[in-house]
Design a protein that fits this description.
Length: about 200
């Protein structure tokens, strides 16, 4: 027993050290934005404010990372109340029947110290399609003001709204939607300190 117990404790320490940390979204400092061509005159921009869920991240082995994100459709913000209401209608996001969209990470691949790729699936208007995002790891450290260990990322991708049943006004209003996410997460629980 005197030999077995230290061995078990050592195994537990190794397992804990290699596990991905869990983070909850800091919704004040996280943004989900999209851009779409408006009759070729400009790129109209919108944002969703209701971001729920979190992610797991292992700085030493990104393949152990994961995420599960839910976004409330009613939080759509186009800087105009009339357009907000219009895009919640059935021809567009159909917010009454599909109040949430969801993105699940299926695989995270690291390319270098700060860049990688997320392969996952996006469910929007009840339709699920594969989506890949280019991922940038910005920083992980103790936050200067909150004093919470925080990790920050940026990610971009392009989807077609027609893949999710939104065909109205194509091509006058663009089919391709550019998406950008800027995410900060606060680590949950009392975890080991990390290098900056």
């Amino acid at each position: 027993m005197r030999i077995l117990l230290p061995a078990l404790l050592a195994l537990f320490a190794v397992t804990s050290a290699s596990a991905a940390d869990s983070y909850r979204f800091d919704t004040v400092h996280s943004q989900v934005q999209f851009r779409v061509s408006h009759l070729g005159f400009s790129e109209s921009e919108g944002e969703f404010h209701d971001l729920r869920g979190g992610f797991r991240f292992d700085r030493d082995d990104w393949s152990k990372s994961s995420c599960d994100v839910t976004i409330g459709i009613a939080s759509l913000d186009l800087d105009d109340e009339a357009w907000n209401r219009k895009l919640l209608e059935s021809d567009w996001f159909d917010g009454a029947r599909h109040p949430d969209m969801r993105f699940r990470c299926l695989q995270v691949t690291q390319k270098d110290e700060h860049h990688g790729r997320i392969d996952g699936e996006l469910t929007l208007r009840g339709i699920t399609r594969p989506v890949s995002l280019d991922l940038q790891f910005n920083r992980a450290a103790i936050h200067k003001y909150s004093l919470k260990y925080t990790a920050g990322f940026s990610a971009t991708t392009m989807i077609r709204r027609s893949d999710y049943g939104m065909h109205k006004y194509i091509p006058e209003i663009g089919d391709e939607i550019a998406i950008r996410l800027d995410i900060e997460g606060q680590r949950e629980g009392a975890k080991r300190e990390r290098k900056k």
